[in-house]
Design a protein that fits this description.
24% strand; binds ligand PZK; five-stranded antiparallel sheet; 292 residues
Amino acid sequence: MTALADLPLIASGKVREIYEGRDRTLLIVASDRISTYDVVHPTPIPDKGAVLTGLSTFWFERTTGIVPNHMISVADGVPDEVRGRAMLVRRLDMLPIECVVRGYLSGSGWKDYQRTGEVCGIRVPPGLSESDRLPEPIFTPATKATEGHDENIDFDRAAELVGDRALTEQVRDVSIAVYQHAAEHARERGIILADTKFEFGLDADGQLTLGDEVCTPDSSRFWPADEYEPGRTQPSFDKQFVRDWASSTGWDRNPPAPAIPDDVVTRTREKYIEAYERITGEPFDGWLSRTR
Ligand code: PZK
């Protein structure tokens, strides 16, 4: 079995890493790190990386009929030291846009709407409030910023960056279909998937392929359905305890983020596990055995 230390690190994000495997494969490793207000805390949330990998696996398995994806394995070829929180994937030629789908008005979508009445060039009905559900999910692409925040762009700009209008239309339609599937499933289990971000690439045969992570709490807004109340910012299903605690400390949201106390870590870990169990309908205990 390969050890992680033997694999070249090819990219590192705030909370995960990508290593190069053999024969055009990559190993995506989700850490237990957590960020609030875009800053990573020094304290990990145990099992967070495994929950995110388990959720991506669940959605990849359920959406192969909509679009092929990059997943190869969460067992064979995964080093023991990252078992449960790593996925072996096919290397793709990634498209240069973030494929965001929004079912609700939040974050930069709400900001842009208040300013212009549109989100990424899509006309949205007047009179909506923060966190309102949209009449239908919309494709709101963004640039991939190497530093700072992604910039929302309209469909024409996305097509220009992709360099193929028909392919961009396919990406839009597939993004909305995967979001719609996941959002309906999550809603039946008490979680509102307000929005989500996908990344796509082309495989060795030029086929459009879903990559990255799918509908995890790190790539999406998860809201507890029983607390949903439009007209305000919604609580986060997973991160709310950390946010509330961090605010109460008077932290100014600039680095470094403060260490998280044990009780907040414990309650946050329980929320991630609850999200996994609600969405998959399986005990989280069963996840690790699936990866051996
Ligand atoms: C790829 N990222 C984003 C950055 C991360 C992830 N299947 C693929 N083929 C080629 N490249 C990528 C993928 C995927 N997924 C994704 N960067 C490259 C990213 C930093 C850390 F974990």
